[in-house]
Amino acid sequence: MGVHPKESTAQNIENIKRQIGEIAAIYDWDMEVNTTDPEFYKWTQWIFVQMFKKGLAYEKQMPINWCPSCKTGLANEEVVNGKCERCGADVTKKNLRQWMLKITENTDRLLGDLDKLDWPEKFKKMQAEWIGKNHGAEVDFKLEDRDEAITVYTTRPDTLHAATFMVLAPQHKLAAELATDETYHCPKKTMVYTPSLIWKFI
Ligand SMILES: [Zn+2]
Q1: Domain edge (last residue) among 113, 133, 153
Q2: Which InterPro entries does this chain map to (predicted)?
């Protein structure tokens, strides 16, 4: 739009507030939170620095939704039926170095302290499900003629003896390397970016 986002954002906020006033909706503006205000986000940055110092923030390659036409990452909500909401192009996955927060380190505390919150039960339940604690094992499957192994997390290691194959996600770092004519398997033509694999156990 040729306008600095700082200016357009401030204008949009003013506009929305004017409209809210015009429909006579009642809000306590003393309680307003503006996440684009440096006075607000200096604290989210401060929290991040504290987590970084404690080793709870780390960088990792993680796949994101990628629109090759807009050349931008997309939130799940911006992907409609596998297509970019903005331009309609097929959305692919792209590995990107991203900051992650190690919430798993504090799972017990996060779950335990939910009881202290004066929240409706359904929100507490949603929060607990988001934290998603479960018990399981990581099992290494050795690859034929290679040193690497594929690590699989399972909550049911007792059922492993019945397993006959595994599926490797297309974004797995070994997927492109391991693909052969026999193991290459691509359910959706539009997703041809990196191959997904069906890998027989050895
Ligand atoms: Zn797009």
Answers
A1: 133
A2: Leu-tRNA-ligase, Leu_tRNA-synth_edit, Methionyl/Leucyl_tRNA_Synth, Rossmann-like_a/b/a_fold, Val/Leu/Ile-tRNA-synth_edit
Q: How many domains does the chain have?
A: 4
> How many Å lie between the centroid of ligand 1 and the Cα of residue 87?
4
Same domain for 141 and 191, yes or no, is yes
In the reported structure, the alpha carbon of residue 97 is separated from the centroid of ligand 1 by a whole-number distance in angstroms of: 21
112: left (phi over 0), alpha (psi -120 to 50) or beta: alpha
CA 101 / ligand 1 centre spacing (Å): 28
Average confidence (pLDDT) per 10 residues, the chain, 202 residues: 92 95 92 92 96 93 90 91 94 88 86 92 89 83 82 85 78 78 55 38 38
